[in-house]
Amino acid sequence: MPYPQHSKLLHAFQQWKAKAIARRRQIDMLNKRVNDLMESRDAWKTEAQARQGHIAELQEENRRLKHSALRSEKKTSGTL
Question: Which of 10, 22, 69, 80 gives 20 to 30 Å between its CA and that of 28?
Protein backbone atom coordinates (compact mmCIF):
# COMPACT_ATOMS: atom_id res chain seq x y z
CA MET A 1 0.00 0.00 0.00
CA PRO A 2 1.43 3.44 -1.00
CA TYR A 3 2.01 6.07 1.60
CA PRO A 4 -0.85 8.61 1.58
CA GLN A 5 1.34 11.21 3.23
CA HIS A 6 3.85 10.98 0.38
CA SER A 7 1.12 11.62 -2.18
CA LYS A 8 -0.11 14.70 -0.29
CA LEU A 9 3.41 16.08 -0.02
CA LEU A 10 4.08 15.49 -3.70
CA HIS A 11 0.82 17.20 -4.62
CA ALA A 12 1.60 20.17 -2.33
CA PHE A 13 5.08 20.45 -3.82
CA GLN A 14 3.70 20.42 -7.37
CA GLN A 15 1.20 23.14 -6.49
CA TRP A 16 3.91 25.25 -4.87
CA LYS A 17 6.16 24.78 -7.88
CA ALA A 18 3.39 25.79 -10.32
CA LYS A 19 2.66 28.91 -8.25
CA ALA A 20 6.35 29.77 -8.05
CA ILE A 21 6.72 29.48 -11.83
CA ALA A 22 3.65 31.68 -12.36
CA ARG A 23 5.00 34.28 -9.90
CA ARG A 24 8.39 34.25 -11.61
CA ARG A 25 6.73 34.89 -14.99
CA GLN A 26 4.69 37.73 -13.53
CA ILE A 27 7.75 39.28 -11.87
CA ASP A 28 9.69 39.07 -15.13
CA MET A 29 6.79 40.66 -17.02
CA LEU A 30 6.47 43.47 -14.47
CA ASN A 31 10.24 44.10 -14.47
CA LYS A 32 10.14 44.40 -18.25
CA ARG A 33 7.24 46.84 -17.99
CA VAL A 34 9.13 48.93 -15.42
CA ASN A 35 12.20 49.03 -17.66
CA ASP A 36 10.10 50.07 -20.66
CA LEU A 37 8.44 52.83 -18.65
CA MET A 38 11.78 54.07 -17.33
CA GLU A 39 13.24 54.20 -20.84
CA SER A 40 10.18 56.07 -22.08
CA ARG A 41 10.32 58.50 -19.17
CA ASP A 42 14.02 59.14 -19.71
CA ALA A 43 13.44 59.79 -23.43
CA TRP A 44 10.66 62.26 -22.66
CA LYS A 45 12.78 63.92 -19.98
CA THR A 46 15.72 64.34 -22.35
CA GLU A 47 13.45 65.79 -25.02
CA ALA A 48 11.81 68.17 -22.53
CA GLN A 49 15.20 69.37 -21.30
CA ALA A 50 16.38 69.97 -24.87
CA ARG A 51 13.23 71.96 -25.61
CA GLN A 52 13.65 73.92 -22.39
CA GLY A 53 17.18 74.84 -23.47
CA HIS A 54 15.91 75.89 -26.89
CA ILE A 55 13.23 78.04 -25.24
CA ALA A 56 15.86 79.72 -23.09
CA GLU A 57 17.96 80.46 -26.19
CA LEU A 58 14.96 81.94 -27.99
CA GLN A 59 14.04 84.07 -24.98
CA GLU A 60 17.60 85.39 -24.81
CA GLU A 61 17.54 86.16 -28.53
CA ASN A 62 14.18 87.89 -28.13
CA ARG A 63 15.57 89.99 -25.26
CA ARG A 64 18.60 90.99 -27.34
CA LEU A 65 16.43 91.92 -30.34
CA LYS A 66 14.10 94.02 -28.19
CA HIS A 67 17.08 95.76 -26.63
CA SER A 68 18.59 96.37 -30.05
CA ALA A 69 15.28 97.69 -31.39
CA LEU A 70 14.96 100.09 -28.44
CA ARG A 71 18.49 101.41 -29.04
CA SER A 72 17.75 101.89 -32.74
CA GLU A 73 14.51 103.65 -31.91
CA LYS A 74 16.26 105.98 -29.48
CA LYS A 75 18.95 106.80 -32.05
CA THR A 76 16.42 107.61 -34.78
CA SER A 77 14.19 109.66 -32.46
CA GLY A 78 17.24 111.54 -31.13
CA THR A 79 18.46 112.62 -34.57
CA LEU A 80 15.13 113.99 -35.76
Answer: 10
